[in-house]
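Homework help board

Subject: predicted structure for assignment chain

Our instructor gave us this sequence and asked us to write out the predicted structure in token form, then describe one feature. I got the tokens but I'm not sure how to describe them. Can anyone check?
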Amino acid sequence: MKLNVGGIDRILRVVAGLGLVGWAAMGGPVWAWIGVVPLATGTIGFCPAYPLIGMNTCSMKKEG
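My token output:
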């Protein structure tokens, strides 16, 4: 599993995920539990949808 979620993208996913999960835990709507998905993908650094659409937000490392 190659990382495909970059730094800023990861931070935004974790913050949004925590916000949604926190909202759901405090009595928000059931659909707010979807925040588990961006929280997990931000933590792991891999988004399974990105390869399907040909996207990658990781910075390229230069060799040499």
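Reply (TA_rk): Your tokens look well-formed. For the description, you could write something like this. The chain has a mean pLDDT of 92. That's the kind of observation they're looking for.
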